[in-house]
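Dock adenosine-5'-diphosphate; give full complex structure.
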Amino acid sequence: MTERGLLIVLSGPSGVGKGTVRKAIFDSEDNDFQYSISMTTRNQRIGEIEGEDYYFRTKKEFEQMIKKGQMLEYAEYVGNYYGTPLPYVQKTLDKGKDVFLEIEVQGALQVKEKVPDGVFIFLTPPDLAELRLRITGRGTDSEDTIDERMKVAREEIEMMASYDYAVVNDEVPKAVERIKSIISSEHFRVERVIGKYRKMLEEL
Ligand SMILES: Nc1nc2c(ncn2[C@@H]2O[C@H](COP(=O)(O)OP(=O)(O)O)[C@@H](O)[C@H]2O)c(=O)[nH]1
Ligand SMILES: Nc1ncnc2c1ncn2[C@@H]1O[C@H](COP(=O)(O)OP(=O)(O)O)[C@@H](O)[C@H]1O
């Protein structure tokens, strides 16, 4: 029997750079895990590809998926649903392949309840001033909205305690290397491999 794959969850406060770091990980050549494409009800942006960036669905379609129990997790973020379709994750882990999720904090906590043996990585900003700069630098938010986002970010940072690892996103390539090294060490955890040895002993 193949050993079950590892579920890797990258999360952290809005604006910390989750999307940027995730893209850099998947652009690098030496990664051996599968990205789970999320489903969302937000509008497709120019340049985004259906089934590659997201599965773009209506609110009704998304709610149908929830009803049928086909979402591993989902959250409402800035007025839209975002979630992880369960069938792909299950199928891929069963094949022995690692699955990588990049999701916001509420969703990550739901995954932690359902899959406690996943690896939960929290991406942190070097400091709050830098987080504010990244949120400001990204777009068209008003000062009030930025204050609101910073308040949410502070609450999200408090959730760090539920995670296994905290990785500082000071520079993207450094954050990428830290995440890769965490994932490779996870494969050597005794609780992941002990079953195989027990089986060998039983068969002696
Ligand atoms: N819970 C959850 N969050 C997600 C999922 N996919 C993306 N997100 C998060 O949703 C937030 C908004 O994503 P997006 O609309 O692409 O905006 P941007 O990353 O801010 O440009 C980000 O924090 C993502 O990490 C998902 O499947 N589940
Ligand atoms: N290490 C970094 N140093 C400087 N800017 C960064 C870094 N990582 C991400 N950014 C920038 O911060 C902003 C937010 O990044 P993004 O990936 O959209 O965050 P998230 O997905 O966590 O909301 C973007 O403008 C991005 O280019």
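Observed: The first strand starts at residue 7 and ends at 11.
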